[in-house]
Amino acid sequence: MVGMRDVARKAGVSVSTVSLVVNNAGYVSTDMRAKVEAAMRELDYIPNELARNLYRDRTDTVGVIVPTIAHPFFASLTSALQHEFAERGLKTLLCSTVDADKGEAEYVDMLQRHMMDGIVMAAHTAHPADYWTSIGRPIVAFDRYLGPGIPSVDSDHEQGGRLIARQLIDSGARHVVLIGGPRAQFHDLAAHVDDAVADGNTTFPTVRYYLTLEHELDAAGVRHDYVEAGEVSEFAGYAAAARELFDRFDDVDAVVSSDTGAALCVQEAIRRGFSIPRDLQIIAYDGTYVADAAGLRLSVIRQDFAALASVLASRLSDCIAAGAGEGAAGGASKSSAGAAGAAGDAGTAEASDAAAVSGDGLADGVAGDTAAGDATDNAAAQSGGFGETVVPVTFVPGETTR
Hints:
This is LacI family transcriptional regulator. With 402 residues, the chain is of the alpha/beta class. 41% of the residues lie in helices and 15% in strands. It has three domains: 4-56, lambda repressor-like DNA-binding domains (434 Repressor (Amino-terminal Domain)), CATH 1.10.260; 61-154 and 304-345 and 379-391, Response regulator (Rossmann fold, 3-Layer(aba) Sandwich), CATH 3.40.50.2300; 157-303, 3-Layer(aba) Sandwich (Rossmann fold), CATH 3.40.50. The longest helix is centred in the C-terminal third of the chain and has 18 residues, at 305-322.
């Protein structure tokens, strides 16, 4: 096997010079670098990545933890994340907690052993906040609160709730049924944590769109109900919930759910003779590929996967660059400059919501979204409290609303 000494001998330089070239560390003159690289090519030298990692204390590998990649939302998110990390020269190691015996624990152990450089945590966790804050390595949370000092990136779910409410109230909806996960998630934040951390005293910011929508409907005097569909990985639960809502509520005239739940509601409603959107409006939340596969093009609140992935990758890269200790707890009192520097000009909630309504179809809305702008700029990301970076959402009308 060809080693550094062989390369050094061939190039007529010292082993330390070869090491500097291989690890791209320290100054090496252009001529000297060219000699070393030519020797490497001639000898078919392949650097020992394990040795390089030990030298740099870096693996160039990050973990992405999701509940399940079978869910369209997390499939879309991980695809966008892998692209963003690859652009930064990082490899992605994926963990689907539903499909892994040890859940996230094995990946956290790898992080602590320096077998990866950082983690994006996008799955629900039963671990208390002090578990995450004690790790002392780079972690960024997606759509959840892990603990004080750990940065997070979320979609603007309150904006999403207001956009849905505006559509349904303005179109005359009288009875709205929401389908979602266990209602217990709305109030799962430990009692000793300040309630201001998240609306509804929850570690799960996604529920803000339900809470905001319910608040707006209450203010407008519109009846609403909630049907539980089980955990995010329980797809059969959404089909059962779709049947249940029509069995329980014969006067329902609007349904709000994830893309999967909304698509199933379209199919169930058509089977039962509803005319969509005349008799029943259906709004999906997520804006994945499923929104175009329901039989009718769903009206959706589209989460900006490109922007979310860009901000997540930027924040985790910043944490890694800042060092292990600061990655987990430092830099979280404010959003990173690249992720949220231009966030302050979002304006009032009403102005932001108005800008987030797209008149195009779902596919066109991705390209023409005036709310999010250029995702890679992160220019529209808003800085929330507790190290939270918030990315705007967009309402994209389809064939299932009036």
